[in-house]
Amino acid sequence: MSANPVTPNMNADLFIDGAWVRGNAGNRPNVDPGDGSTVGAVSMADFDQVQAAIAAASKAFPAWSTMLASSRGEILKTAARLLEHRLDEAAATILLETGKTQADARGEILRSIQTLAWNGEHAGRVQGTIFPGIAPGSTRRSTPTPLGVVAAITAWNFPAVLITRKLGAALAAGCTVVLKASDFCPATARLIMDVLIDAGLPAGVVNLVFGDSAAVSEQILAAPEVKALTFTGSTAVGKRLAELAAPNLIRPVMELGGHAPVIVWEDADIEHVIATTAPAKFGSAGQSCVAPSRYFVHESLYRDFVEALVKKAESYTLGHGNEEGTTMGAVAHQGRIDALAHLVQDARDKGATVEAGGETLDRPGFYFQPTVLSDVPAEADIMTEEPFGPLCAVVPFSDLDDAITQANAAPYSFAAYLFTDTISVRNTVVAKLNASNIGVNQTAPSLPDVPLGGLGNSGYGYEGGLEGILAFTQLRLVSETAHA
Ligand code: NAD
To answer: What percent of the chain has pLDDT over 90?
Structure first.
C-alpha cells in the first residue's frame, strides 16, 4: 500500500447543542471496505440524546432564521474555504470509509466545497414577489419564510456531497437541522461539522446524531418541532420515511434510487459512448444513483459495442484506494456483494451471458469485478432492480419505440442517457423517456446550481439551485393597506 501522508481521524461522536458528546447507546465500528479492518468508531445516540438534538435545533431556530441571510451565507462560504484547506484529509477520510479511489474521493470533496460555496453565495438571493394591491394604496408581498427544524437523513455513497447539499440548502433558507448521517461514513460527517463549527456556526443550528436508523428516524419524524424531511437513500427506506412524515404533515424531499438507461442509436460513436459513460458506471464502484445500468444498443452496433465495453470493464485495476494504480475501489459492504452476485446469477439463469467480471475478489475487503451482461432478457431482475454496483446489462434493439418502452420499464425515473446526432431521434427520446435528468451525448451530473429530483420510485422534490433552497421555505402572503 502506498504511504498516504494524511492519517485521518476516523471516529465520530454526536454533536448536540454546540458540543461534541459521546453517545449513550455505545459504539459501532467504522469499517474500511477496502480491507475489512476497523479504522474507527461511531458513537450511537440514545432516545434522550436524539430528543436533546431536536430541542437544540428548535431553540436555535428563532435567532438563525432571523439572522441576515447574507451572514448565514458567509458561514457557508467560510466552511467551503476551510474544507478546501482540509482537502487532503477529507479525501483520505472518505476513501477509508467508502472504499473509493483517491480520484473519486478528491472529486467528491471538490464537489462538496462547490456546494457549500454556491448555497452560501445564494443565501442572500432568496427573494419574494410584490403583487399589485387590490385596493388603492394597498400592496401584496409574497415572501419565502424558513419552515423550521429540518430532519436530514443521508446515504453512504456520496457522504460529503449529500450532507453538504442538504445542510447548504437548509441553512441558506434559514432552517436549523437534525442530521442523521449514515453510520457507514461517520467520520466524513464529523469533518463537515468541524468546518461548519470553525466557520462560526452557532450552537444548535446543526445537530449530528447516529444511532439505530429505524428508531432514530421514527423518533425525529414524530417530533412536532420537525417541519421538513430531506432524505437521500434507497426507495424502500424512503417510502417508510414518507409514511412516518405523513401524520405530522412534515414536508418531504426524497432523493431515492435510480436505474439509468442508455440508448445508443445507430449513428453513435461507440468509443465516445464508452469514454463518456464508463466513469459514471464504474466510478465509486458503480454506487451512484445516476450510474448507467442498462444499455440499449442499436443492433447494427451491438456486438462491437459489447466488445468495446468488455475491454473497458477489464481495463480497471481493482484495489484499495491507497494502493498505487487502483482505478476502481471496493463496494460498501458485504450486503452490496450479495445483491450483485444475486443479480448476476439470476440473469445467467434466465439466459444472459456474463461477458466480463461477475465475481468477487479473493482478498480482504468487499470487491466485485466490473461486470457486463449481454443479451439480458426483460424478465431478469437486473432490468428492474437498481444494481448499485459495477454491473450493467446490454440489450440490442432495432426499433426506437421498443428501446424507449424497455428503458421506461424500470420503476425508477431519474437519470437517462442518449447518444445520437439525429435530431428526430433526440426529440422523440427526450419527449418519451420517463426520466427527470437526461444527458444527450454526455453524462448528467447533479451540480449545485441546478434543481434536480426524481419521479416515480426515484422520489420527489428538488435538490440544487434556488429551488433546492426554497424547498425549505413557505411563501407567506402579506396584503397591506396604508390606512387602518
Ligand atoms: P439506505 O436507504 O439504506 O440508507 C440511507 C439512510 O437511511 C442512512 O442514513 C441509513 O442509516 C438510514 N436508514 C437505513 N435503514 C433505515 C430504516 N429502516 N429506517 C430509517 N432510516 C434508515 O440507503 P444507502 O444504502 O445508504 O444508499 C443507497 C441508496 O441511496 C441507493 O438506492 C441510491 O440510489 C440512493 N441515492 C440516491 C441519490 C439521489 O440523489 N437520488 C443519491 C445518492 C444515493
So the answer is: 96
